[in-house]
Amino acid sequence: MRRHRCQIASDTSESGSDSDADNTAMRCISCREEYLPRDAGTCKECYVEAGETEEELKREIDDLKAKISFLRFSSPLDHVNSNSTSFTDVVLISSQDAAASPPIPANKAVLVSRSPVFKAMLENEMEESRSGTIKIADVSYDALRTFVYYLYTAEACLDEQMACDLLVMSEKYQVKHLKSYCEKFLVTKLNPENSLMSYAFAHQHNAKHVLDAALSQITENMDKVTKREEYMELVEKDPRLIVEIYEAYLAKQVNTAARGTSTSKTV
Amino acid sequence: MRRHRCQIASDTSESGSDSDADNTAMRCISCREEYLPRDAGTCKECYVEAGETEEELKREIDDLKAKISFLRFSSPLDHVNSNSTSFTDVVLISSQDAAASPPIPANKAVLVSRSPVFKAMLENEMEESRSGTIKIADVSYDALRTFVYYLYTAEACLDEQMACDLLVMSEKYQVKHLKSYCEKFLVTKLNPENSLMSYAFAHQHNAKHVLDAALSQITENMDKVTKREEYMELVEKDPRLIVEIYEAYLAKQVNTAARGTSTSKTV
Q1: Residue A34, CA distances (Å) to A45, A166, B5 in order
Q2: Disulfide check for B103: which of A76, A155, B91, B262 has CB 3.0–4.6 Å away?
Q3: Nearest-CA distance from A244 to chain B in Å?
Q4: Which of A29, A107, A113 minimises the CB distance to B42?
Q5: Which fold has domain A192-267?
Q6: Whether ipTM exceeds 0.90
Q7: Fold for the domain defined by B73-79+86-189
Q8: What's this model's pTM, rounded to 2 decimal places?
Q9: What are the domain boundaries of chain B?
């Protein structure tokens, strides 16, 4: 059999070859277009198998989605204006908006199950557990409300500010799933303009994914970034961060140069 | 291009043909085996795309699994022998094993969120809500414990008896996700020996998937099934069920006959 394969290889290497092997068009079962042996993908058996695998994966996705919908809680906030009860046993208060905003009802069992910090706080008979009131500092009412909603539903409607606020809270209360959710969102919003501030923010809150993605954006646009006002500010405020950026930039330059040398050697 | 395709078609129809087109073996990118044009599946482009789709689906599955693990509760039963608190506010008691078995702690918020029956019971200040005790009739302690565990985790370790017990409870308390989970399990356990009892059971508890699968098993093995003791018993106890089975069997026979006739006509 190997003989045939070698034959195709030698045929296709002759440009403009008119040999039979080169011109034998087949029809792709998937896109229905004709193609030549050099563009061949799979045999029929593997095509059928791949289709079955895809179907299985889609069924698994449907099952997982049904499970999520079963496990998701309705947030007690949804009950506030309805007649139903939510059996809450604690309230959260944003100390920033304490006077203006209503307390947010919640269940200790939910808070404890989602956050090791709430768990330690509520199980150890601390002030919060006795009073049934948890004061959250440095957060707006809206952010706190969205945070609690996420603990019940694993869902949040984000913009960049909200993603930053929730990332800070998720770091503080060790809600890993929410932190990763915010990081993914912030990575999609990165651009040369916001990369430096995102880098500093990620550094402060141990957001590894944002950090790596922002650093990559910065080192690809060093010329632009170093002309920005935030750059000057950061040089004053936290020069070690700027040093880290230059180190990453240097490493990239050295790598690129090394690749260039090895390529020119092989050519 | 069409010309080439017709050429392949005519070539491959000649058995034992030695023509170039027929013998041009290609190597499948997926299984690495050689194949002939007649066994061609996809072109290279579609192969690559299919691979990307599979990767995307697998990433989605990982994300959904992480979400499930976030949303899943630890069951209060796990806390019983640990030092941690579960902030439960209600207990469930199996009235069948009431004297011998401990009450099972739970959170009203969880019960209400998973079952519309518990919701109505607990939100309407019925006896159960006031006393903080829910008595569950006709169920063993083990089944009740597994039921509560499922409400918290969407997981249960099943055998056939447990699947039947939980199906009955999930029907009574309208926990659809659990009912569907039990039905899927019972369908995998169907065989000609248990098909008739499963059919009767499914009929009694509105388990549509089990009903259809069992009926299909029965009508494929009518000769065996009608010789079984359970058949005689069911004829006595619930003859309408047996009539339904015969009606399904008849419909199948008529269909098969019709297909046979139309096939012989086209031949």
Answers
A1: 18, 52, 8
A2: B91
A3: 32
A4: A29
A5: 1.25.40
A6: no
A7: Potassium Channel Kv1.1; Chain A (3.30.710)
A8: 0.82
A9: 26-71, 73-79+86-189, 191-267
